[in-house]
Specification:
By secondary structure, the protein is mainly α. The chain is built from 3 helices and no strands. Keywords: Membrane, Transmembrane, Transmembrane helix.
Amino acid sequence: MKKYLVFAGIFCVSFLVLQVAAGMIWTLLYTPDISAAWQQAGALSSETALIKASAASPFIIAVTSLAVTFGLTRLVRKRIAM
């Protein structure tokens, strides 16, 4: 039972870290279209225009965090066995 809790804890932390990192990267790479925004300046809307993320992005992050979790739990088990 303890192994499963450690695995779940590491998975949650790695998933959270990867989600935040992906969000920061998307934010850094985003460049707004100033000319399109200027053309819509006459009719100001209260909506925020964001780019659409890929549907595969959460799946890739989940698989990556699963691999990180698997590697870290194996590393922890080896250190405990020593």
